[in-house]
Amino acid sequence: MTHPADPASVSSGIAAVDAYLANGFATVPGMSSRFAATITAGLMRIQTGLGVTGPIAEIGTFEGRFFIALAKALQPGEVALGMDIFDWPNPAVIDRFEANCVKHGVAAGVRETWKCDSRTVTPAELLERTGGRRLRLFHVDGEHSRASLAKDLALATAVLADDGVIILDDMLHPGYPTLMVTVHEYLTQHPEMVVLCIIDRETIVGATKFVLCRAGWFKRYETELLAVFEQCVWPLGADFEPHWCLVLSLDTRLAAIT
Ligand SMILES: C[S@@+](CC[C@H](N)C(=O)[O-])C[C@H]1O[C@@H](n2cnc3c(N)ncnc32)[C@H](O)[C@@H]1O
Q1: Using an 8 Å Cβ cutoff, are 35 and 18 in contact?
Q2: Of 11, 16, 132, 249, which sees the most CB atoms within 10 A?
Q3: Backbone phi and psi for residue 29, each to the nearest 5 degrees, phi listed first
Q4: Where is 66: in which H helix or E strand?
Q5: Where are the domains of the chain?
Q6: 218-228 and 34-49 are packed helices; what angle lies between their axes, rounded to 10 degrees?
């Protein structure tokens, strides 16, 4: 195996997602990596196998690159809530988001587009959008300030199903070094939550994501991830003192020691 491995060498195991990752993902403007989309959709497949169901949401859909991959991993009857202020870089971004969803087969009944400022959304307002159903997955990729991340994390936690997962984008990113402070404060305040795994960066734009879950679900998810993505497991893992978690990467080498 070459290092780093080609992202195309990893698959989610969901045919519709993998076809989009191979043929559509790179054509949709966005900032998430193909590797992260593959692992996240693969995690949704694991959830389905474990009987975990429900809607999903993303704060910061932008033009839909990552959102479409996740929406294509849903089961019949499940919906994907796409939240964004949709004013950057111009107001037409919402039309491009909708057009990309249509082009790549995310039907109107599967997606719910919500133009909003996530910092002012209450859990009750969000759950009203999902018919009261708690979320199996929440991708947080909105404004990258400590205050916004804290608010988005609080919202995600409040609406998450017991067996749900939260994905945090742009962790350990050189441009946003203080976001880790918010994550550590959050983990201290929420001992019921742990980091399930780290999805390593592909590039500086396609940056690292953290996956969080409730402590009671950690072992079940970890066991499945280890089996499904064995070739991506970086041997040393991540030390959250005292909690350890998986690191999934396209580059699983260790430093050479003579
Ligand atoms: C980095 S882009 C998201 C990229 C996208 N998730 C992807 O993977 O390609 C960040 C997005 O967050 C949105 N955003 C920023 N602050 C927000 C807020 N307070 N509420 C909702 N969306 C916000 C921006 O409009 C932008 O579209």
Answers
A1: no
A2: 249
A3: -60, 140
A4: helix 65-71
A5: 7-248
A6: 120
Chain segment 109-125, per-residue pLDDT in tens: 999 999 999 999 999 99
For the chain, helix (H) and strand (E) counts, in that order, are 8, 9
CATH 3.40.50.720 assigned to domain 7-248? The reply is: no
Give the pTM. Answer: 0.98
In angstroms, the Cα distances linking 250 to 35, 52, 63, 102, 127 are 8, 27, 25, 31, 36
State CA 4 to chain mean position distance.
21
20 close to 72: Cβ distance less than 8 angstroms: yes
Taking the centre of ligand 1 as the mean of its atom positions, its distance from the CA of residue 71, in whole angstroms, is 17
Q: Render pLDDT for 5-24 as a digit per residue (tens, 0 to 9).
A: 999 999 999 999 999 999 99
Q: Residue 177: is the preceding peptide bond cis (ω within 30°)?
A: no
User: What 3-state class would DSSP assign to 196?
Assistant: strand
Segment (H or E) for 164: strand 160-171
In the structure, which protein residues have their CB atom closer than 6 angstroms to any atom of ligand 1?
Answer: 30-32, 59-62, 65-66, 83-85, 88, 117-119, 141-143, 148
| For ligand 1, atom 14: residue with the closest CA | 142
Distance, CA 118 to ligand 1 centroid (Å)? 10
219 Cα to the center of ligand 1, angstroms? 31
Of the candidates 133, 138, 173, 147, the one whose C-alpha atom is nearest the C-alpha of residue 59 is 138
